[in-house]
Amino acid sequence: MKKWLFIGILLPLLGCSHGSPAEKVLRTQQSKNDPIMMESPETIQEMAVPNPIQKQDKQQQRKTNALLNVPLIKQNPELKYGCEVTSLAMMLKYAGAETDKMKLYTEIQKDLDPLKRSASGDILSWGNPAEGFVGDMTGKRAGYAVFDKPMVDLIDRYLPGRAVNLTGKDFEHVLDHVSSGYPVVVWTTGDYRLPDRWESWTHGNEVIKTPLDLHAVVLVGFNETTVYLNDPLSGRKQVPVNKKNFIETWKVMQSRAVSYR
């Protein structure tokens, strides 16, 4: 009996390159549905980079808002499918590491299993983003995604012993990490909404089920109703997004999140 592995990934010609989420969402604001994105971020006192030596007070009252001044880096034009490493570059730059998106592109673990399609164009087999980036990140060929474990390995290379994998944690735990002064790379969709189309293929003896649209961004702040994101695809800094709706999408993406301490 095959072992089923449900994984959210981005697909060729979609995923990280699936249009500007800012443009897509703003067009929906006149609809009856509540908008995902807000008009503009509230004025929140920005936080300084934390001293890693300082111990966090576990009894400290949870903060209700935070906003980190994380530098914005755009993935295009060099990395059409490079939302993960570009988001990672933003986070590492904020932490003081000397690197950039192109260096991370060469260093991230890759799954080199080739893409195989049926005569009708359906994906039959491909790599596993849990093991490394799948496909071609530059967009010269079909590109895909990479998930949390290879990202954590790369964080540890630049910040030895400080990588934190928050995947599977409650979102409040992720927000606590941000309120302590650490940005977090999180997985969502291109417009931050729930995915409505899925694909599946085999990888060895596993079946990988994936949404057509998956994206990675940097969580840089929050308040009671809103999260703030640095988006490498739209090229927008501190994008305000409805917190409740964002959390729903994040959970469907298997609650993936990575950071450092």
TrEMBL record:
Classification via InterPro entries: Peptidase_C39-like, UCP032442
Q: Which domain of life is it from?
A: Bacteria
Return the Pfam families for the record. Answer: Peptidase_C39_2
Which residue numbers delimit the Peptidase C39-like domain?
68-232
Query: PANTHER family annotated for this entry?
Result: LMO0724 PROTEIN, PEPTIDASE C39-LIKE DOMAIN-CONTAINING PROTEIN
- Quote the protein name from its UniProt record: C39 family peptidase
Q: Print the organism lineage.
A: Bacteria, Bacillati, Bacillota, Bacilli, Bacillales
